[in-house]
Specification:
It is a single chain. The protein is of the alpha/beta class. The chain has nine helices and nine strands. It has helices at residues 25-39, 43-51, 54-66, 83-98, 118-127, 165-175, 193-215, 218-230, 234-243; strands at residues 15-18, 21-24, 73-77, 110-115, 133-137, 150-156, 176-187, 247-254, 259-265. It has a seven-stranded mixed beta sheet with strand order 5-4-3-6-7-9-8, sandwiched between helices. A two-stranded antiparallel sheet has the order 1-2. The protein is globular, with a radius of gyration of 18 Å. The two termini are 27 Å apart. The structure holds S-adenosylmethionine. Residues 32, 36, 78-80, 83-84, 115-117, 120, 139-141, 156-158, 161-162 line the site of S-adenosylmethionine.
Length: 267
C-alpha cells in the first residue's frame, strides 16, 4: 500500500476540545500532531509507566474481541507504534496454523497500521513488525482506502485525539465490508467512586510529572489526561457509533471502567 499523508479540511470552522480547552478543529489537528511528535520516542515506555503495564492486558482483551482471522484485511487506525497490529498479525497466523497452515483456502491476513504521525510510525517500524503488517501515514478522518475494503477496523487510544469524531466513524463505516467488525479501545469513566478518586489523583498529579521526567514533556501528558475527561461517556459514544450506521454496538468495561471497548458490526 502506498503511504499517503491526507490532510483534514483546513476551512471547517468547527471547534474541538484540546484537553480542557476548545480550539479550532484544524488547530487541534496541528496541536495533537505536536503532542505525538514530542512523545513518540518514549511513547511505549510511558504507556507502561502510566498504566503499570495494564494497557497490555486491555490491548490483549481488545484483540481477542476483534478475533483476527486468516485472509482478513484488518485496519488499525491511529495505530501509533503498532501494538495492536502486532497482536492481530500473530493471532491471525495462529488461527491459520490451527487450520492447517497457509494455502489458497487459508491465506495470510493483511494488517494495516495507519497513523497520521510519521514519528509514531517510524518508532513502530524501529521496534519491528510482523510479516502481515504494512505501515501507512494517513488520517482517520480521510482514510486512503476504497469503500468496502476492510474486514475489521480498530482504533485504540486514538479516537479521543481526532478533531472530528463523527467524521472518523463515518470513514470507518465507509471502508468496512458488509459484515465487518468495528472495535474501539479507549479510556472511559471509572464506575466506582473509590476507583474514580484514586484514578483522578494518579492521572492529574502523577502522570504529567512522569511525562516531564521520562519524556521531557509535561504539557503533552497534561493534554492526554485532560483529553480523557473530555471524551464522551460510554453511552454517548455508543450512540455516536450507531449514528455512523454500525449495528449491535456493545460496550465492555475494563478495570472498573478506567477503559472500555466499544464494538459493533457493519450490517
Ligand atoms: C495514544 S496514541 C495510541 C497509539 C496506539 N493505537 C496504541 O494503542 O498504543 C494516539 C495515536 O493517534 C494518532 N492520531 C491522532 N489523530 C489522528 C488522526 N486524525 N488520524 C490518524 N492518527 C491519529 C496519533 O498520532 C497517535 O499515534
Amino acid at each position: 500500500m502506498t503511504d499517503v499523508s491526507a490532510s483534514p479540511d483546513a476551512s471547517s470552522g468547527k471547534t474541538s476540545s484540546f484537553g480542557f480547552r476548545d480550539v479550532d478543529a484544524t488547530e487541534k489537528v496541528r496541536m495533537v500532531r505536536g503532542v505525538f511528535d514530542s512523545v513518540a520516542s518514549s511513547y511505549d515506555l510511558m504507556n507502561d509507566l502510566m498504566s503499570g503495564g495494564v494497557h497490555r492486558l486491555w490491548k490483549d482483551a481488545a484483540a481477542a474481541k476483534l478475533n483476527p482471522r486468516p485472509g482478513e484485511t484488518i485496519l488499525d487506525v491511529a495505530g501509533g507504534t503498532g501494538d495492536m497490529a502486532r497482536r492481530y498479525a500473530r493471532m491471525a497466523r495462529a488461527a491459520q496454523t490451527r487450520r492447517g497452515g497457509p494455502g489458497p483456502s487459508n491465506p495470510d491476513a493483511s494488517v494495516i497500521v495507519l497513523d497520521y504521525n510519521a514519528e509514531m510510525i517510524m518508532a513502530g517500524v524501529a521496534k519491528g513488525g510482523e510479516p502481515e503488517m504494512q505501515w501507512s501515514v494517513g488520517d482517520a478522518m480521510a482514510l486512503p482506502l476504497p469503500d468496502a475494503s476492510i474486514d475489521a477496523y480498530s482504533i485504540s487510544f486514538g479516537i479521543r485525539n481526532v478533531a472530528d469524531i463523527p467524521q472518523a466513524l463515518r470513514e470507518a463505516r465507509r471502508v468496512m465490508k458488509p459484515g465487518g467488525r468495528f472495535l474501539c479501545l479507549e479510556f472511559s469513566r471509572p464506575t466506582a467512586s473509590a476507583i474514580r478518586k484514586a484514578y483522578d489523583a494518579w492521572s492529574f498529579h502523577a502522570i504529567p510529572r512522569i511525562g516531564g521526567w521520562v519524556a521531557g514533556d509535561r504539557a503533552s501528558y497534561q493534554y492526554l489526561v485532560e483529553s480523557i475527561r473530555r471524551f464522551p461517556d460510554p453511552s454517548t459514544f455508543k450512540s455516536m457509533i450507531e449514528d455512523a450506521r454500525f449495528s449491535r454496538v456493545a460496550v465492555t468495561n475494563l478495570s472498573g471502567g478506567v477503559a472500555a471497548i466499544h464494538h459493533g458490526w457493519a450490517i
